[in-house]
Amino acid sequence: MYEALNAMRRNGIDNKQKILAHFEKITKTPMEVQKKYLLELLDENKDTEYGRKYGFSDIHSIEEYQRRVPITVYDDYSGYIDRMTNFGEENLICSKKPVWYNKTSGTVGAPKKIPYSQRTRDCFAKYSLGYQSGLLYRNLKERYFGGRWLNLIRCSGDIVRLPDGVPYGPISEASLRPHIDKWRYIFSTPVEATFSPKGTDARYLTSRYGLCDKDLNNINCTFTGFLLDFCRYIEKNWRLLVSDIEKGVISKSVELPDEVRERLSATLEPMPERAAELRKIFEEGFESPFIPKVWPELSYVVGGASAGFSHYTNEIRERYLGYDIAFYFRGISASEGIFSVPIKLAAHESALIPDSLFYEFIPIDDENAVPVTMDKLELGRKYELVITTHSGFYRYRMKDVLLVTGFYNQTPMVEFQYRIDKTVSLMGEKTTEMALRVATENTAKECGFMLVDSSVYPDAEKVQYVCLMEIDRVPKELTEEMIRSCLDKNLSQLNPSYGEKVKSGLITPIKLIFAQPETYVLYKELMRMKGYSIAQLKPVTVIDNEIQKGFFFTLTEDFEEIKKLCAQ
Q: Which of 134, 279, 391, 515 could bridge across to 519 with cysteines, CB 3.0–4.6 Å?
């Protein structure tokens, strides 16, 4: 049944192993690769408007580049990009015309347009797909092959052509749309669940069709939080799903556009044997992972999972997935390019890619520090990432903070920590995203409830942290004050500066509010309806604008009512 699919996957395995060998080689001399990359890039762009402005033709060393070219942010390029996209001007910041503009996932103001050259796009494909396949095959061998994939990446379908003729939209759209003609041979997930029109219950479609396919080989998601949402949905809705599979129908209670319902319903058939098998599994309860029972051939999961969001992965492992199915945690990437790849499976740390971008790093523990190159990085120290790309960004501040965890050959291994612009500081305490998330995770563990998700709003007027939690499985004896006190203790331990300022009265003790069930899922759906790519949406750890505040603070519930809902 899957001969054609596996033939496609086997094709090119040798080439993917060559990618691993190439990466092994360049990580032994990363600064030679970095210098060559930078000087070739400057020579290629010396006659652009930006290159002439900063004298690229006269730069022959990394040190000269750092002296001549300033540190930049997106606003330094927005004028150039406007001239490129609206008026078709070329040779402004890059000698090669972009082949794509990546739409960022911001929630306030106009989304940014990040230019992609063909070289950037090829590098992304090489390391996000080719390297990934090579490493999985190296570790799994024949288990790498098998049945179809379960796709949890959703696209908003909003690719447009800008006035200069270049496509503009989330890069996930560009990577998935070329497969539509052979979609059903690759994915169990129907096209309508991935490129879902408004009014489509994509979670139902993904779950229903996935449950029908006993021979799934792997699961693909952007972030592991999406896999957790998927598992929780099945746990709460398995009776509806199994009933529909048994009858070969789509329940009238499921929200779908009429044309989608008609098109899908016409292809469905009753599956009583599979339904009976699933019903038996689910009726046994969820005290042990259900995924290995439902999909015994499932070999691996691919998804992003930084160490700061490990509670998603831990719950997936412990409650739903088990420990025999492999996890490939994607390295660090962003709209601007791909920065790192893992060296082994199930590892949160990853190695920088020497020939993907030119990197600089600003130590965050020194306000007067100057950017350094990767050969100057120190183990255990945190740095803000600065990049130079083949798509026209030079010494561009990413605002991402990375922790150096070790070295692979001569190349630094890093973990994503937090974004500088997501740090909370009411009185100079500088509480990071990482500290906020770990504090809530530790609180959930100590108090014995399940943390679905959480956010913190820094109330400048009251000088107070307001913590919003969506929770489930709450012990009967637990009180709101017990949670608040535990959270305050954990946050003070993770950031002593915060604790000291609360103790001295400079910061008002933390306030708790509780989100209604499925609030965070609804937020993702709202963002998708507004045209943002769900595939790029990151967890809202810090509520930092009025749109988010208005949404989340509206969907709250009294703690005792939450306990009643959890008991149902």
A: 515
